[in-house]
Amino acid sequence: MIRTIFIWILLVVSSGILSDARAQKVALKTNLLSDAALSPDIGIEIGLAPKWTLDFSGHGNFWTINDHKWKHWLIQPEARYWFCRSFAGHFLGLHVLGGQYNLGNINIPINFLGTDFRNLKDKRYQGWGAGAGIAYGYAFPVHPHWNIEAEIGIGWIYTRYDSYPCAECGSKIDSNRAHNYVGPTKAALNIVYIF
């Protein structure tokens, strides 16, 4: 339901903005880091002013691979301020994010700032999350229509989840638990096509 509403909002907003699009005001992109993690990513960035853009990106994974549950979807709109001009050089971003997940039987041996990712090896977590963060990035123009863009962000995510004793089990251990995560909220190496 939430996904359907978001898709309709994105289509309505983008159709209104794209109808007024001019050269070098709109870009399509994909995050190679998400793509490599089997989480296909797509984004659109729209120029609002000479130094301001609005980036809408999202990715998801809707399958189970070798008994590893890594199902999720995430949207992450971001307002960007460019130090020189849009789509080139250094920028700062302010993003919000939201999504749903169903993760389990994954070995990530990291315990970071109160979030123990090692629990994903023996348990399954299903829930939703929302948060906000700040980011820094740099766009490397490689052609009049092509950029390579690197970005890193930190922030906070609030999540509520149910947990299960294994990746395929149906008996709940915990229900509607809350967790606050502080740390990296964005890492991107984007290939960008600018119209």
In a few lines, what is going on in this structure?
This protein is mainly beta.
Q: How are the strands of the biggest sheet laid out side by side?
A: 1-2-3-5-6-9-10-11
Helix fraction?
A: 10-25%
Order of helices and strands: HEHEEEEEEEEEE
Whole-angstrom Rg:
18 Å
Strand content: over 45%
Biggest sheet overview: 8 strands, antiparallel, barrel
Average of per-residue pLDDT values: 84
Number of helices: 2
Write down how many β-strands occur, each being a DSSP E stretch of 2 or more residues. Answer: 11
How far apart lie the N and C ends?
32 Å
Judging from the principal axes of the Cα atoms, what is the shape? Answer: elongated
Uncertain parts = 16-23
| Secondary-structure class | mainly beta
